[in-house]
Amino acid sequence: MSTRVDSHQHFWRLDRGDYGWLTPALAPIYRDFLPEHLVPQLEQSQIASTVLVQAAATVAETRFMLDLAREHSFIAGVVGWVDFESEDVANTIDALSADAGLVGLRPMIQDIPDTEWMLEEKLAPAFEAMIDHGLVFDALVLPRHLPALLELAARYPDLAMVLDHGAKPPIASGDLAAWKQAITEIARSTPMVCKLSGLVTEAGSADAAVLEGSVEHLLTSFGPARMMWGSDWPVCELVCTYGEWCSVSDRLLSKLARHEREQIYSETARATYGI
Q: Minimal CA–CA distance to 234: which of 10, 15, 24?
């Protein structure tokens, strides 16, 4: 029986109306994506469970995801959203944490103009409440945010952190030098875990040869014990299908020992999110 975990997938229902980034310009994914659409692909790719991650900057969507998790046993955990700037954020986190399905929170940092937003003192109550409730901080960042994230990790050493999508390396441009240096530093200086996900979207390609350099740098920097595989479905559908990303991932990781692949495909996600 498969134990593989997809550590990063989304659902959305357009009529909910709070996915500000999701417009008709993104035609391949501008429709509803719900559990019934994913289950056949999980079965085909032998994925046992998933971590469902926020796609809207609302608490309402977090509650929507928690409802789905109660209805579908394959959803092992939910990474939600709260307003980190709210004066009532600690109470909001306390209330949401009453649901055991909540395993983490993710502000949409990549969409915030201020590169150092995460370091603002007014966010301290949110980070402290996350630590109190054992929640994981999913860092949805771009390469420009990595120095601030490094400082944030030093400020909150008890906060479990996950780097989403390898910090979105600029694979398409090929200008990876600054990203590589920042990744090396954050992997060396923090216990942060990194998601092997979202790379096909940054590359605009699911060709293993195009992705190989970035994947190898992440593996060298973090090591298999600090990496977890994710599909970023349905966003990956902009470039490839769920099954295609699974196949490409298998090729990219084929040189690793079996136990190392098991860490990336299952063990790291289970340990990090407590699922």
A: 10
Closest by CA to 11, choosing from 54, 40, 44, 50, is 54
The candidate with the shortest Cα–Cα distance to 62, out of 90, 95, 31, is 95
Q: What is the CATH number of domain 4-273?
A: 3.20.20.140
Tokens matching residue 177: 């030098």
Q: Which residues contact 73 (CB under 8 A, 6 or more apart)?
A: none
* Phi and psi angles of residue 188, each rounded to the nearest 5 degrees, phi first: -75, -35
Q: 29 with 10: CB under 8 angstroms? A: no
* pLDDT single digits (tens) 23-68: 999 999 999 999 999 999 999 999 999 999 999 999 999 999 999 9
Bond prior to 234 in cis (omega within 30° of 0)? yes
Q: What is the pLDDT of residues 113-140, one digit of tens each?
A: 999 999 999 999 999 999 999 999 999 9
Domain spans of the chain, in order of start: 4-273
- Both tokens of 44, joined, read 């085909």
CA dist., res. 192 & res. 97, Å (int):
22
What whole-number distance in Å separates Cα of residue 202 and Cα of residue 150?
22
